[in-house]
Amino acid sequence: MRVRKLDCVLVYHWQAWEDFYISHLVDPACQVPARYSDDFKSIARHLSPNIRAVLFQINLSRADLFPERRKRLTTMLQRRGLLVLNSEVQDITKNNLHRLLKRAGIDSLKASRRGPAEELVFLKTNLNFGGMNEQRLPESLRRIFLPAPACPIKRWDEYYVVLRRNVPPALWSDSSVVIERYIGNAADSFYRVYGFGDAIVVVEGRAPQLIKKLLGRRDEPHWLLTRRQLLSQTTQLPRDLQRVLKRFVAHYPLAYFCLDLVHDGQRHYIIDLNLTPYSDPRRQTAEIREFLIRGAERFVRRAARHLVRS
Length: 310
Prior knowledge:
The chain is an alpha/beta fold. Helices cover about 25% and strands about 20% of the residues. The protein has a five-stranded antiparallel beta sheet with strand order 10-9-8-11-12. Strands 2-1-3-4 form a four-stranded parallel beta sheet. About 35% of the residues are buried.
């Protein structure tokens, strides 16, 4: 089944197009690579008459710092009457995610030094994906985006689980490292949630690995919901899962996002927020893509009308 793609959204991206989920949803003619030095003219020349919104897809944990004139760019685009998507949250570091969850009244898995000595805790980098994309930046920019001194965990595949009593003491006060309580369930189940405009897609995956990945199998359960359904109706989602998602979406109405959640069979916890989700093309389904595209179209059309009236 051939799925049409959006042509009303311009994707302004850095290291976040080919094989990223957005490339399966937006027409390839509506994308432009970003540079740190870009000014408004760099984007303006790509604003064809059909463009109603601009989506920043900067694959860095602190996307608010890229490009250098991001605030100015956002202001100029809004003055043109364009929607700038995902301006509400641009810092997806793990420490900031914990702050976002606390602000919304959602429990996180952030671990404290005090607690059962035999409890398992999960050690990660504060930067998304081990800070690998930050390490790809030119040397002149690394000092802006990478912690100093360097994080003792170098890559995402160096994340590890250990008993609380075995955590090196210095790591409890190291802001480049995030320590979370480790939970699991007998089925190795977890959830990934995609949102685009009015569309919310929840997929249940199963993975025994420490870092959970969707396999893309046809038998992976999934639910297609509108934001209104998630926020105002009882759905077939596990009750606590819907409670957590409802509270997050109500507090942070992001236009395009991905969440990962783990659970212990009863309680569900958001462990990752990603604004530039990657997605292997072999793990796509036309049904989900079409649902997300239609949800984005409705959202952009409605928001653009509101801008015109205001």
